[in-house]
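Researcher: Quick test of sequence recovery. Tokens follow.
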């Protein structure tokens, strides 16, 4: 997870807020699908997120992990 240079705009479609975080697209793929968010056309594998979208996706990623645990319980 990286910090973002000033002036970078959020990569989520229809969002024009300044980005505060950047993550790899690969990592976010499922979270994006789950939360119904779409990305703008990207250069490379970096996804820039504003604070609002970062929070939404962070939540979605947590949920994902919980589901995985539920699918494969450890006895
Ligand atoms: Zn955004």
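Model:
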């Amino acid at each position: 997870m990286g910090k973002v240079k000033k002036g970078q705009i959020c990569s989520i479609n229809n969002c024009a807020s300044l980005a505060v975080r950047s993550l790899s697209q690969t990592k976010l793929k499922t979270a994006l699908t789950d939360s119904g968010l779409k990305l703008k056309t990207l250069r490379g594998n970096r996804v820039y997120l504003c604070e609002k979208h970062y929070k939404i996706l962070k939540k979605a990623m947590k949920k994902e992990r919980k589901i995985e645990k539920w699918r494969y319980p450890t006895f």
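The pocket of zinc ion is lined by residues 10, 12, 15, 17, 50, 52-53 (CB under 6 Å).
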